[in-house]
Structure formats: structure tokens, C-alpha cells
Write a structure and sequence with these properties.
GO cellular component, one term: plasma membrane
Mean pLDDT: 87
Number of domains: 2
Number of strands: 4
Family: Belongs to the major facilitator superfamily. Proton-dependent oligopeptide transporter (POT/PTR) (TC 2.A.17) family.
Largest sheet: 2 strands, antiparallel
Strand order of the largest sheet: 1-2
Keywords: Cell membrane, Membrane, Peptide transport, Protein transport, Transmembrane, Transmembrane helix, Transport
Helix content: over 70%
Distance between the termini: 29 Å
Strand content: under 5%
Oligomer: single chain
CATH architecture of the largest domain: Up-down Bundle
Main location: membrane
Structural class: mainly alpha
CATH superfamily of the largest domain: MFS general substrate transporter like domains
Radius of gyration: 23 Å
CATH class of the largest domain: Mainly Alpha
Protein name: POT family proton-dependent oligopeptide transporter
Low-confidence stretches: 222-234
Number of helices: 18
Order of helices and strands: EEHHHHHHHHHHEHHEHHHHHH
Amino acid sequence: MEFKFGGSETNQKTVLGHPSGLFVLFFTEMWERFSYYGMRALLVLFLTAAILGEGGWGWERSEALILYGWYTGLVYITPIIGGFIADKIMGYRKAVVLGALLMTLGHASMALEVTADMFFYLGLGLLIIGNGLFKPNISSIVGQLYKSQGKEKDAGYTIFYMGINAGAFLGILLCGYIGESVGWHYGFGLAGIFMFFGMLQFFFAQKIFGNIGLSPKDAEDLDDAIEDSIEDTKDAIEAVADHASKSKITADRLKVIGVFSFFTIFFWWAFEQAGGSMTIFAADYTDRILTGDGATTFKIFNTLLTVVPMLIITWVLILLFKQTFAKYALSNVLLGTSFVIIWGIVIWMLNREFSAEVAEVKASWFGILNSFFIIAFAPLFSKLWESKYNPSGPVKFAIGLMLLGLGFGILAYGSMGIPLGAKTASVSMIFLVLAYLFHTLGELCVSPVGLSYVSKLAPLKLVGMMFGIWFVANFIANLTAGWTGSYIDPIVEEYGMATFFLIFTAIPVGAGIIMLILNKTLIKMMHGIR
């Protein structure tokens, strides 16, 4: 019997129209992003918090943003090494497990920063290395679940991206809250607990992927067991593939990946201000204290904002259980246990907030808006990409860049009343909320689409490596984002906060216009891939 999807027989059972293995990856990636974004939400706040009273390190803003840029940049450059190791030695699945283990140890080390500073830096190093093994290879497995290269794969990557942002949402919300309210090291430690759960649930369910993601040696052993006639067919296919890899078509497609990678630098350079200068704007320039009816309204809104996504994710979890529990019970039990814990923390947090008379919106809280909007809009965008209104990849990129620029334009408008050189202000929260909305809509047009196109355009033997190159672009963007953000004080002092944000308005919009101009050329170079 011919399977519709790659992987095992169990993987042919669908959840929301997609192979059940996609949702094993969905939850693995969700907990990894929980750990990454939970820690990222705290990094700049922890570094700039006062040593006495707040338990931070008392760094200057510029110093914190430079370290933030190096960290967020390096977690994207190590995937090129991790992709190469997986392609040539370990296979995708072993790389994912080892990467998750290293990241678990990294968070545990950061939780010990109260005993010695060295544990903080050791933790960052382990997170960087672990992410390099994890990030490109789990995305590569997603791509190989689908036999077609069309709209179905685009939709699958969008669903996967919803898992990424579900983890980011919960990580920023809970690690940020506990870090700011209870203690920085508790927030760092919480991030590691769920990374550990994600690793275990993936490890015990990995057979659902069949021979997808095996190491080269394991794949050879599997091939030896195949009948000679099938072996001959495979050899013929490989010969055709080898010839195609040298052809102009493959070269053109790789060039398109290069163009997409280049333009994604402009997107993430601006977008990654979220954990840097936008976090500083939230902490020091935004009115976050609410009383009376305003406090009550926020508490109700925050409860709905937290509970509704949790219910949606739990529903997806139940759908996965129905399809896979009989075959992969231990993985499902571990995943279910992690959700019981997370529900307990959510209920504790909401009860604690409702008992307080004054509502102080945490500076890290605004980061959850991006993830919430992703969860809310990802299904809509997934359906749009499957419809007749599906635009080309370059057009999606152009729209995404322009929406990002519009979000910063809103922040620039809201900042017009801040005096030159001001260290604090009380700007309305609505400007940050709207900025995150437009940034998120732009992200949905760029990031999941970019992942899908790398998977579709790259030759099979180079998929891991090309995902690594894709993430190198993110390294450049994140490093530059931290460096640019570190100039927030001199720019605000001489030109004003509005001018600072206008920089991040003009450049992405300009890049989007150029991408529109290149649209027809890039479509031609993709040679039929849409």
C-alpha cells in the first residue's frame, strides 16, 4: 500500500488534515521555543536590573543589548554546523535529541547564576551549541513528512510555526512573570524543565517517522534489507538526482534561497528589536500601572489571553492522543504530564494577579502578543496559502517586510511626545499592542513561508545544510539588531525616540519594494516550484 505521507503507518493518521508526526514535532518545537523565548524575555531585563534590590547585574543598556545581539545571533549561526553534522554523521533525529539535552543542561546552568557568574555564561554557551543541533534538523524532518512540494507543505509549515509560537507565548508569559515577580534564576530554571519534557516526548515517539531522519549509517543498513529490484530503482533515482544537482535548475533554485536569505536579514534585523530596544521601551517608556476599572479590565483580558490559547493547544494535544496513544503511550504520558504542570502554573499565576489591587503589566508581557497573534492568525494564513488567493513567495516576503515597517511607524508616532534624551516616559500601551500586531502579520508572511521554500528548493541531500545557511542570515540579522539597538540612548538624546523607530520603518519598507520588483525573475528561477 502506498502511503500518502512519509514515515510510518501511524503517521498516515491525520490531525487537522496533516500527518500525526507533524504534531509530535509541533510539541517538541513548542517546548524548545518555550525555553528559548522564556530565557530571551528575561535576558536584557536581568542584565539591566539593579544589583541591589532587583537582583540583576546592573549593566548599561548598550552593554546588555550587545550581549543580547551576540547570543541571539550565535543561536542562528551554529545551525549551519548542526545541519552539516546531521546530514553527514548523526541524522536529523539524533541531532534533535542531543541538541535538546544540551539546551536542558544550559538552562539548568543559568538557574545556578546566583551561586557564580560563570554558570550564566556556561549556560548561554550550551544553549547556543544545543540550538545549532536542534533548530535546522527538526525543520528538515517536517519537510520530509510531505511527498508533494506544493500548497500542502506550505500549510504544514504554517501549522508547525503555530507550535513554535505556542511555545514562545507560554515561555515569555510564564518565565517572564516568574523571573520578574519571584526571581530571575527561577525563570531561567523553569525554561529548562519543559525543554527536558520536549526531548523525552520526541525520543519515545521518533519511530513514527519511519526512516525519515536516520543517520547515514542507519539508512544504509535499512537499504541492505530492501529487495534487489527496489535497490535498482533507488540507484536509478539517485543517478537522476545526482545529475539534477549539477544542472542549471538546481543552481537557480539555490540562488533563490540565497535571495530569500538576504532579504530575511532586513526582516529579522528590525523584528528582533522585540527582545531588545522594544523591551526597554516597554520597561521605561510605557505606562504599565493600572488601577480601578483599568486594572480589572486588564486582569480579565490577560486571563482570556492566557486561557484561550491554552485550551486550543490542549485540544490539539487530545487530537494527537487519539491517533498515537496506542502506539506511543509513554511519549503521550510525558507530554500530558508537562501540560498538567503548565496548567497548574497558569492557574497559580492568574489567581495571584486577581488577588492584587493594582495591576502592573510586566515589561516582558508585551512579548506574548506576538505569539498570541500567531496562534490566532496562523490557521487563517494556512488556509489562505492553500486557496486560489495564494501569492508567490517573493510577494509574501514583500508584504511581510512592509507590514513590519508599518508596525514601527506606529511606534514612531506614539513616541513623538517623548522629549530628547528622556530616560523614562508614560506612553500608552496601545502603540506597543498595535506594533506587535503588524509585526506578527508580517512574520506570518515571511518566516514559515521561508522555511517551506528552503525545503522545496534545496536538493534532498543538502536540505540540512541549506537550513543552516538560512539561519546564518538570522545570525547576521540578530547580531546587527543588537548592535543597532545599543545606540538607542545616543539616538534618543540627539534626535528623539520617534527617529529611532523610523529607522526600522524605512529600511524594511524599502526592502519590500525591491522584493516586489524581483518577483517575476525569482518565479522564473524557481522552475515550477510555487
